[in-house]
Design a protein that fits this description.
The chain has five helices and four strands, in the order ααβαβββαα. By secondary structure, the protein is an alpha+beta fold. It has a domain of 101 residues: 2-Layer Sandwich (hypothetical protein PF0899 fold), CATH 3.30.2320. α1 packs antiparallel against α4.
């Protein structure tokens, strides 16, 4: 039985309505999936940028902390250098006062004469030469001549050697020094300075750790004394 035009149109409308419904459902499904994927991607991007921002500010915070530590270290080093500079200046003042007091030694002729004898004998034992040139202050010439004779005897007793000492009257030691002698081999190849200033300087270098400890106390951070 053939369908009438009305039935055909009815079936066509029915099919079109079904297709449209399927299309709408499919479009809704695609929209829902797209919305879900958009939400997921948006969350991923937000989290990614959030982590980047956190990492950026953590790096900035570390840089600020590092700058603070560097600044504090620089200030600490600066203060330590200032303390060391003040300590060195104080040590120099102490040694200067000690040097000024050395001049008092030569005022006591008996004690100074014995000191000259010991200094000359020590120089003889260090050089062990048969003949030496001796320099002194011009004001000390008489005392040095007396001390030489005694020092040569002491040297002979200690070493079993003789030595001829000659005072260099053409080259006196400066009058402003506190005293003592210089001893030279022939040709001035070797010189030993046994002036009071030289002895003070040597003693100061040897006792520098003890001097620091006496003046400023023991340093808890010092591992080695030098």
């Amino acid at each position: 039985m053939a369908l009438s035009d009305a039935d055909v149109q009815k079936q066509i409308h029915h099919m079109m309505a079904f297709i449209e419904q399927e299309a709408n459902e499919k479009a809704e499904e695609i929209d829902a999936r797209a919305e879900e994927e958009f939400t997921i991607e948006k969350g991923r991007l937000v989290q990614q940028n959030r982590l980047k921002i956190i990492e950026y500010y953590e790096r900035k915070e570390k840089q600020v902390e590092l700058q603070k530590k560097i600044g504090a270290s620089n200030l600490l080093n600066k203060s330590r250098l200032e303390v060391l500079k003040a300590q060195e200046a104080h040590i120099k003042n102490v040694l200067h006062e000690a040097r000024q007091k050395l001049s008092i030694l030569s005022q006591n002729q008996a004690a100074y004469s014995k000191l000259l004898e010991d200094l000359i004998c020590q120089g003889l034992c260090q050089l062990l030469e048969p003949s030496l040139i001796l320099r002194c202050r011009q004001a000390d010439q008489a005392l040095v001549e007396q001390a030489i004779s005694r020092a040569v005897v002491s040297y002979k007793n200690l070493s079993g050697r003789d030595c001829k000492l000659e005072i260099d009257t053409a080259n006196w030691l400066p009058a402003e020094i506190c005293g003592g002698v210089e001893m030279l081999t022939k040709g001035n190849r070797i010189k030993i300075s046994n002036t009071l200033e030289a002895r003070l300087e040597m003693l100061a270098q040897q006792m520098l750790p003890e001097i620091r400890a006496m003046l400023f106390g023991a340093n808890p951070n010092r591992k080695f004394d030098n």
